[in-house]
Amino acid sequence: MAPPAQSQRSQSPSQPSGKGEVSDLKVQLRQLAGSRAPGTDDSKRELFKKVISYMTVGIDVSSLFSEMVMCSATSDIVLKKMCYLYVGNYAKGNPDLALLTINFLQKDCRDEDPMIRGLALRSLCSLRVENLVEYLVGPLGSGLQDHNSYVRMVAAIGVLKLYHISSSSCIDADFPSALKALMLNDPDAQVVANCLSALQEIWSLEASTSEEASREREALLSKPVIYYFLNRIKDFSEWAQCLVLDLVGKYVPSDSSEIFDIMNLLEDRLQHANGAVVLATIKVFLHLTLSMTDVHQQVYERIKAPLLTLVSSGSQELSYAVLSHLHLLVMRAPILFSSDYKHFYCQYNEPSYVKKLKLEMLTAVANESNTYEIVTELCEYVANIDVSIARESIHAVGKIALQQYDVNAIVDRLLQFLEMEKDYVTAETLVLVKDLLRKYPQWSHDCIAVVGNISSKNVQEPKAKAALIWMLGEYSLDMSDAPYILESLVENWEDEHSAEVRLHLLTAVLKCFLRRPPETQKALGAALAAGLADSHQDVHDRALFYYRLLQYNVSVAERVVNPPKQAVSVFADTQSSEIKDRIFDEFNSLSVLYQKPSYMFTDKEHRGPFEFSEELGSLSVGESAENVISAQRVDANDNDLLLSTSEKEENRAPSNNGSAYSAPVYDGSISLPASQSSLAIDVLLGLGLPPAPAPALVPLPPPIKLNPKSALDPTTFQRKWGQLSLSLTQECSINPQGAAALMTPPALIRHMQGHSIHCIASGGQTPNFKFFFFAQKAEESAGFFLVECIINTSSSKAQIKIKADDQSTSQAFSALFQSALSKFGML
Amino acid sequence: MISQFFVLSQRGDNIVFRDYRGEVPKGSAEIFFRKVKFWKEDGEEEAPPVFNVDAVNYFHVKVAGLLFVATTRVNVSPSLVLELLQRIARVIKDYLGVLNEDSLRKNFVLVYELLDEVIDFGYVQTTSTEVLKSYVFNEPIVVEAARLPTLGPAAMFMQGTKKMPGTAVTKSVVANEPGGRKREEIFVDIIEKISVTFSSSGYILTSEIDGTIQMKSYLTGNPEIRLALNEDLSIGRDGRSIYGYSSSAGAGTVILDDCNFHESVHLDSFDVDRTLTLVAPDGEFPVMNYRMTQEFKPPFRINALIEEAGSLRAEVILKIRADFSSSITANTVLVQMPVPTYTTRVSFELEPGAVGNTTDFREANKRIEWGLKKVVGGSEHTLRAKLTLSQESHGNIMREAGPVSMTFAIPMYNASRLQVRYLQIEKKTKTHNPYRWVRYVTQANSYVARI
Fold first, then answer.
1. pLDDT over threshold 70, residue A691
2. What pLDDT, on the 0 to 100 scale, is given for residue A781?
3. Has residue B175 been placed in a domain?
4. Rounded to a whole number, what is the distance in Å from the CA of B433 to chain A's nearest CA?
5. Superfamily of A706-823 according to CATH
6. Closest to A543 (Cα-Cα) out of A507, A498, A514
7. What DSSP assignment string belongs to A226-243?
8. pLDDT of B20 higher than 80
9. Whole-number CA gyration radius for chain B
10. A79, A94 contact by CB (below 8 A)
11. Which of B13, B50, B259 shows the shortest C-beta gap to A309?
12. What is the pLDDT of residues B337-352, one digit of tens each?
């Protein structure tokens, strides 16, 4: 059976285009096509293998299409599979030839062997040729009803394939509802899982155009469906469990006992050896408990050990994926991990992308008790042969110093780095010493003594050079030869390629001049002359500005260049907390690895069903000042909450061992009363969710009606928000359950949509959430209402600001909006 | 949901290429390979396992020198895709016995057949070798294990004269033996990777054991298996002080920080008598992974010294002592130490009568390497290296060298003292008693001594 060795060798891609071989194959296939001699199948297998191997290395063998099809009339299943693979690969490019295969595929779909039926159906759906769609519908319909689960499994995915070839034929054949029935009734778990995958994709894509589809999509997140999946979770394969857990993560439970039921049911998934299952479970836990600070913190404690185990078992690649998630959690709540710092020590053989994450984690968890050890460890890395890690380590030490722990010892260490006389160490350290001095001017004396000894010739990197020059200017009184060092730097103006350095040099020279005029006069003159002649616009402008300023009034120049400085208390964070929250919302996805929300790296059409719009990012930019302040406040709140609960934690009875959550513990699994669950499913099979309450049912009958399909693009929104004056500000209470449900903001967005009020942007973090909504009057096209709504979940209060095109109706709209809001969370 | 799956050789050739959804443009394999190969111009940094080029996400894992790659445009769970790639590699290995470029090229049709059943339209269907058996019809063309270099995983269990059937783990789960009937046997391997960092004074700064109990079953009829571990095994330390190092628990107890289990494992009696019950599926899989930070005796002690010996000269003395029983032998021991970057030449001096030692100065990354084929328990070995420097070291030489790192494998030794007390196989027939192999091995993960 084993093929001769040389035939295998010939697959090497180094061989020529293969044209000769392809025509050879063509002849040979023809000869075999009609042959019924014994052993024909074996020779066919060899030929088919060659064809497939050519295909793999990229040689075009599509010219063999008809011969391959002719040879496929066989009962040999291995041959059939190879033929299907070939056909699937080339059908799209050869739609006419693909027609040739329909016949035998359709016949195979009726074979008595379920394996053949399944294979044929899969291949039939994989042809990706639009004008063959009519041949698919029949076999798919019977495939979904096949008594063999393998065929149903293939058919469920087949429906999805059909949808992608021709969505209308898929919808017209009413396949989605067939899938739904199958999903809720099939005994085979993989069939159920495939139906769920297919339906999620189809309904998400349909939702933009069809209201029914978006209702159906919502219905997937309804209690009966979620419980149906949860009760069967152990029947599913580990991969399908991930799918189910992903769905459960989007579910909004009605009360806290439900949350505890779900968590107790899923508790043992945290012990799964498959990291994907564990992370999916963690996501569910984190999102369910967002509004319950105590429990949320218990979850952090509980998931620590499983995460660390996953990081250290398994391959390096998997370990990295899990570590990135651990990194996210550590950055979110460093205090909770401060005693685990040794786990974040780098190992010498780890790749640098892992080391970088660990260094950031070490920096974040440093506090009074562990700083000494962490900094000692970091200093070991500075001697690392890996230059980039050595740099990052210095950076980490500096950052810890800026966090105010044990500054004294750290400054000493940083200064020791300067004595190591390695260029990159010196460069990196200088930048940090500069930042340190801006925050702790009291250290200037110690630092300047050491910095003064550094020869500027040994500093080449622009950032470091700029830092050194800044210090020379700022502390020119303390460094006796500052004017002369600056002067020699000015002399080499022409050789200085970085504009940043030249800008700093101008400023430093002027600062120095104002403090030690006689010694610096010459250097200043040379610097201004060089600056005025500089080809870089900014450098030129700054030189001119200084020149005029000095001409005008020296004491004004003094105030401009050397104003009394306040120490910097907090350096700006690179990432806004809004972005961080968005990444947290997208836990267990690529966003965590890239440290970017998904809108920054995916195309529009490939975004998940419930993701926020890209425009949110741009919208919030417009009012960044306000956002930054509120975000900081929120951050502080968050930390306070974590702190206060950790104190509470210690007072709690020791019986709480972390594996069960402090709440009514359920024995065994959640068991819905049978009648209730079947009833619920009946409802589902009928109409999905009860129709969204019409505005007319609102207790305060509003005199206006809203247009359920109004649309507004974010730029227009932003412009209007800027133009219109505030017509109404109000504060109202919201239902506490609604506040609890707000931990997944999309839930509120969906709810409001049910009332024809659309969300254009949202963000925030417990306990403060901010939403921008708009709505439009039904009668005429012009009248828009714009709303800014800030909800505080801990006080259950909402602040509403309304702007309207037609001010006269804003009162009525406000009533409508508040009544809609008050209904949120009442199930 | 993934869009494409492919396997590339080290040179970047497509060995297998499967496009499931047709969403990612052709040429993705080339884009991927170029990106991985030239991640950073200096070539120092490795490409991370996941990256994004033009809104296409590329995932890869390296197995047996091959690149297993998946692409997608969707924001999926990275651990799911990476785990899947790893699992696909394992399934292929179960089928082919040996996973390498040669075996993959010889069996690519079989691999396509597997891939069709593992993933449909980007959605994972199954990765169980057991389940796949009923869908897959190609017979594997077995590549002879003998032709392989002895570096494979099988070799690490070889222990002196006590020959373990090391080659058996390179046997295909599905192929029939030349003799006709399959040999009934089961392998349980306890593999521990240890990480230790010694301070310059020889004090242990951190230590950790990451262990796996791995099983590979060639039993027919899927009998139930009971695996009994140490009776006094305890799991979970007081959440707070994971790194407490308080050896208050009796000397004999094994305390794991945490562990996880394969889904086939039933833990019904685990809390009572530390027994795992499972119906072993075909193929290789981890029964249990565990992690331990409890104090343990490190198998090797390292002493390293570097000092200046006149101008432009320095001397390094490396000493290792094997702190384990003399009935045990460590294999493939390698000691490495970075030396000052301005080292130009190194001459080595081994102890008289040293056998199986190799020494090398890696000019490119300025590192000395000392290999020892075998180290018997209780023995001590020393290497002296004389360095020639191109510049003065200003008394800074200690900071320009080290740390010393070590890799090794010690068969039939386990640092954690976790044991399989017994392995019971439910009997289907009276006559036959399957072969059972329980093997231990300890490997260095990160074993470092600072100087």
1. no
2. 62
3. no
4. 30
5. TATA-Binding Protein (3.30.310.10)
6. A507
7. HHHHHHTGGGS-HHHHHH
8. yes
9. 25
10. no
11. B259
12. 999 888 999 999 998 8
State the complex-level ipTM: 0.89
**Res. A407: pLDDT tops 90:** no
Same structural domain, B288 and B428? yes
Q: Per-domain residue ranges for chain A?
A: 479-572, 575-605, 706-823
Residues of A in contact with B445 (CB under 8 A): 347, 349
State the smallest CA–CA distance between residue A818 and chain B in angstroms. Answer: 36
All residues at 6 or more sequence positions from B81 whose CB lies less than 8 Å from its CB, including other chains? B2, B50, B59, B70, B72
- Give the distance from residue A195's alpha carbon to the nearest chain B alpha carbon, in angstroms: 11
Which chain A residue has its CA at the smallest distance from B60's CA?
A317
- Residue A365: pLDDT over 60: yes
Phi, then psi, of A247 in degrees rounded to 5: -65, -45
Please tell me the distance from the alpha carbon of residue A628 to that of residue A637, in angstroms, as a whole number: 14
- What average pLDDT does range A303-329 have in this prediction? 92
- For the cut 60, the answer to whether the pLDDT of residue A621 exceeds it is no
How many structural domains are present in chain B? 3
- The reply to whether B32 and B99 lie within a common domain is yes
pLDDT at B63 over 80: yes
Please choose, from the candidates A107, A128, A125, the residue with its C-alpha nearest in 3D space to the C-alpha of residue A116. A107
CB within 8 Å: B243 and A342: yes
Using 50, 70 and 90 to split pLDDT, how confident is the model at A266? very high
Regarding whether B418 and B407 lie in a shared domain, the answer is no
Q: Which of A2-6, A638-642, A702-706 has the highest mean pLDDT?
A: A702-706
Regarding whether B377 and B322 lie in a shared domain, the answer is yes
Do B258 and A237 make contact, defined as CB atoms within 8 angstroms?
A: no
Which pTM does this prediction carry? 0.78
**What single-letter DSSP state applies at residue B153?**
G
**Do B291 and B418 lie in a common domain?**
yes
pLDDT in tens, A486-528: 988 898 888 888 899 999 999 999 999 998 888 888 889 999 9
Q: Count CB pairs under 8 A between chains A and B.
A: 246
Domain containing residue B60:
4-132
Contacts of B124 in chain A (CB under 8 A): 237, 239-240
Query: Both B23 and B83 in a single domain?
Result: yes
User: Quick one: B390 and B438 in the same domain?
Assistant: no
Cis, bond preceding A767 (omega within 30 deg of 0)? yes
